[in-house]
Amino acid sequence: MRNMVTLIHTLADHGDDVNCCSFSSSLLATCSLDKTIRLYSLNGFNELPYSPLKYHTYAVHCCCFSPSGHVLASCSTDGTTVLWNTQTGLIMAVLNQPSGSAVRVCRFSPDSTYLVSGAADGTVVSWNMQTHKLFRCGSVKDGSLVACAFSPNGSIFVTGSSCGDLTVWDDKMRCLYSEKAHDLGITCCDFSSQPISDGEHGPQFFRMASCGQDCQIKLWVTSLTDFLGFELKYKCTLSGHSAPVLSCAFSYDGQMLVSGSVDKSVIIYESNTGSILHTLTQHTRYVTTCAFAPNILLLATGSMDKTVNIWQFELKSHCQAGRPGDEPKQFIEDWSEEEVSLWLCAQGLKDLVSIFKMNNIDGKELLSLTKESLTDDLKIESLGLRSKVLRKIEELKVKVESLSSGIPDEFLCPITRELMQEPVIASDGYSYEKEAIENWISKKKRTSPMTNLVLPSLVLTPNRTLKMAIDRWLETHQK
């Protein structure tokens, strides 16, 4: 089987260990022991004119983008968390940890309302992003806070300590739960943005991963519903690394989990099965950080070798790796009933969704529908409606043939399942065809087509990087 992940770029601008890297929809940020933060455009990975960003007087431990990508936060041993304007490189605010302790981790809430900073003395602070003032403060009983992750709906966040404790907080900074998760200390944690839908769990259950000095990666399942209360259930341990694991992160579609280790390797797992898809060994020292881009399949890994490697996934659907014979997910016959429903809405056939669901019409069934089955089985009485459905299905069958050329799944709109012409990024972090997501928002509640969670904002941002990638692909494949 061909290799499906390729090293496309190595950034070697930092003068010391790379501690963290983070993506927005158009930029990559990296920070280092050398006290600087560097910013790169995803279009060619050229460093921005105002980079590097300099303010911190000691090592920069962590950097992260706000969901819109307009603000970058960085935190340091100097006890500060700095907010930067990503369009100008100018400082917007300097947030001083009340205790003055070294700040090890910072994270924005999914709606950008708050920023959380965790420090070496165990203090955790929630900052109001409108006023840049301290909102709430708390602390863990032992150890440094070194890891933090928000749930996809922002109702909770989880912190990890050097003593191995996972602590769960609500948005009012009340401690909901604490558990000893890793024997020798936690190093990182991350939530998958995609709900679990495997029959065992309902749509309000999400995966969380944690990793630690005990060389282990643990997968957990959390419930985020008010009526169920909060739960954190251990599911399994992923093996593969032979030394402490320093970083872990889920891909934007939840299909993959990546980890970086003291053993100098990067391992990519399939989230559902825990099977190893790829092991990357190009770094020459400890791998300290790894991050997926929010809407395209790009991966960045940073190391104590002072470099950041950029990896791109090839055209074959990554979630099918290791299972020869399976077709990539972009093929219509592999659509779930939910994907068929999304397609119906996009074609102006929303009134048929309940009928199709009642009859369990998935992608394979959809392609096999006939005039007779629409009349006799689905009881669609309108001749015009039957004709429209059949016409749309014929168009889909043509697409089945064209998709065999291997259009990358990230180039297809999740709503229409068609190649995007004007991709935009919604506030859920996913890219859609502009007209399709506008129609979705106008006809539906303010929910994400991908997560069913409420969209924190209705702002749609052009995804120029994805547009250029699609145009390049079309130039290559339409000659």
Fold and architecture overview:
The protein is an alpha+beta fold and 479 residues long. Helix content is 15%, strand content 38%. It contains seven helices and 31 strands. The strands form eight sheets. It has a four-stranded antiparallel sheet with strand order 1-28-27-26, with no helix packed on it. A hairpin with a 5-residue loop joins strand 10 (103-108) and strand 11 (114-119). The longest helix is centred in the C-terminal third of the chain and has 21 residues, at 383-403. The protein is globular.
In short:
This protein is of the alpha+beta class. It has helices at residues 337-346, 353-358, 363-368, 371-376, 383-403, 434-443, 464-477; strands at 5-11, 18-23, 27-32, 36-41, 53-54, 60-65, 71-76, 80-85, 91-96, 103-108, 114-119, 123-128, 133-139, 145-150, 156-161, 165-170, 175-180, 186-195, 205-212, 217-223, 231-238, 245-250, 256-261, 266-270, 276-280, 287-292, 298-303, 308-313, 423-425, 431-433, 461-462. Strand 22 and strand 23 form a beta hairpin.
DSSP summary, beta strand count: 31
Helix count, per DSSP? Answer: 7
- Please compute the radius of gyration using only Cα atoms: 23 Å
Which bin fits the share of residues in helices?
10-25%
Q: How are the elements arranged and paired?
A:
Elements: E1 5-11, E2 18-23, E3 27-32, E4 36-41, E5 53-54, E6 60-65, E7 71-76, E8 80-85, E9 91-96, E10 103-108, E11 114-119, E12 123-128, E13 133-139, E14 145-150, E15 156-161, E16 165-170, E17 175-180, E18 186-195, E19 205-212, E20 217-223, E21 231-238, E22 245-250, E23 256-261, E24 266-270, E25 276-280, E26 287-292, E27 298-303, E28 308-313, H1 337-346, H2 353-358, H3 363-368, H4 371-376, H5 383-403, E29 423-425, E30 431-433, H6 434-443, E31 461-462, H7 464-477
Antiparallel strand pairs: 1-28, 2-3, 3-4, 4-5, 6-7, 7-8, 8-9, 10-11, 11-12, 12-13, 14-15, 15-16, 16-17, 18-19, 19-20, 20-21, 22-23, 23-24, 24-25, 26-27, 27-28, 29-30, 29-31
